[in-house]
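Sequence in, structure out. Go.
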Amino acid sequence: MLELDTHRGDSLEGADSIRITSAGQYYLHYLAKSFAYLDLVWHDAPLATAGMCDALARAMPETEMLRRFARVELFLDYLNEQEQGELRERNLLQSESAFYGPFVPQIRGQYEREEAFIRQRYRWHDHSSEAQQELL
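Output:
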């Protein structure tokens, strides 16, 4: 995802610069912000609090769309809390650089746009099913 100007993967020694790869760009700007990815990755993410681990474990078997949204939102709340703690710890809260974050507000923004789109399609699907039943 990142590449050194030395093209070495085993050491930072001698490196003057670092760049993000095409795959890294894709992850950073699209995949990591998508509902589908967030809904899959939360159960592989290491969690620092037992309470959050328990809450997400209880939500694991949920397949109904609205419950999946709630589960992802819970995960995003957790990520935001962790990110804010790290930024505070490193005195980076006031930093204007996107390199240091925060990242979660951008992720949440994309998630919310996708959620709204999915909810609209979900409602449309429910109504179209009802209309099809009326025709039968």
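Check: The mean pLDDT is 85. The radius of gyration is 20 Å.
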